[in-house]
Amino acid sequence: MQFDFDVTVVGAGPYGLSAGSHLEASGLRVRVFGDSMSFWAKTMPKGMLLRSPRAASTISDPNGDMTLEAYEAATKTPAAAPVPLSTFVSYGKWFEQKLGENVDRRSVASVASSNSHFDLTLADGARLTSRAVVIAAGIGPFFKKPSELASLAPDLASHCYEGRPIAEFAGKRVVVIGAGQSALESAALLSEAGSDVEVLARRAKLRWIGQHGWLHHLGPLSSLLYARHDVGPMGISRLVAYPQLLAKFPRRIRERIRRRAIRAAGSAWLPARLRRVTLTTGRTVTAAEAVGREVRLRLDDGSERRVDHVLLGTGYRIDVAQYSFLSRGLSSRVRLVDGWPVLSGGLRSSVPGLHFVGAPAAGSFGPLLHFVAGTEFASRALTASLVRTRIHG
Ligand SMILES: Cc1cc2nc3c(=O)[nH]c(=O)nc-3n(C[C@H](O)[C@H](O)[C@H](O)COP(=O)(O)OP(=O)(O)OC[C@H]3O[C@@H](n4cnc5c(N)ncnc54)[C@H](O)[C@@H]3O)c2cc1C
Questions:
Q1: Higher pLDDT pick, 385 / 227
Q2: Are 92 and 37 in contact (CB under 8 A)?
Q3: Which end of the chain, C or N, has fewer beta carbons within 10 A?
């Protein structure tokens, strides 16, 4: 039976674009669907800087022709470190252009499986068939809101991933909840935009990444301690660089490594930008209610806050059953553990022909898959597997 495509990719973020470039180069008929880089362009705050180092901010292509440096050289963009969000989004768009007609900006409304293939319906109602499908749809649907705050109206409380423009809050009182990069960088940007900001964190003390910068400048010794992707602390960083090896670890240990490598912390360049922000640690919100156009928060020490908005930097929890475009029949056949798809070599799920890349693959292959740096491993492994399947049927 002839299908429209050998492979379709749902999502045109770093993982989808990278997968598209590798799959196309291997001779497979591929189409990547989605509005490219939209998570970065529409939900991340303007003015944000990438937390990942330059060496870990390249979207992988098969020949290494489309690196961040190649983009900067081609467009005469100054090479900055940390990388500004605007540069990274433009880099992704440039990468998309190189893929030409293999990227289609329409989004995918549904993916269902038949015996030998997948049926896809696009947002405009168009239908197509594909032998295999790669889910590269990111973490958008997975954000977590604490139950105490979940019932507040969106103009009173929003999650960082909902993309409210920082400038909207100039002159307003904002409480930011969380202790990770999203929360702390949003707090810095809000303060710089003229908001009166307090960070509330459950942790007794905030953590900062890269406090031992000198360990990165010891020549060959540093490369024994840290992989170039720089995900996780000394030692763990080296382990994280081998997703194939991590996949062989017992799940419990792999999960401990994953949590340790991505635990909540802010970049080393943030504290200086938080000087005008009140940092309150060791506190949790026990109740929240709307009072007119304000929010009243009660904290576990009995104190209260009255603010105009609560911004939640409270992270996300992977549960691929939340991808609304997966048909119920298909979703029920994907083997999950705590919401993570169980993947084998080639990032294959329990449904033949259905693959997951990006953060949902981190449960099986470790924390590198949460970051752009994991595109190289994911795209190569995926492509090798799909080429083999095509040859051997
Ligand atoms: C605040 C913040 C800062 C971060 N900083 C860094 C950093 O500095 N470095 C780093 O490496 N990582 C960083 N990350 C992690 C980052 O999210 C991932 O590295 C990266 O986005 C993974 O790429 P992706 O392609 O898997 O997902 P995404 O970039 O989210 O792309 C997925 C795309 O799929 C689209 N999509 C979803 N459903 C459909 C559908 N049905 N049809 C079509 N398209 C669909 C989405 O709209 C989205 O555009 C950060 C994350 C956050 C939240």
A1: 385
A2: yes
A3: C
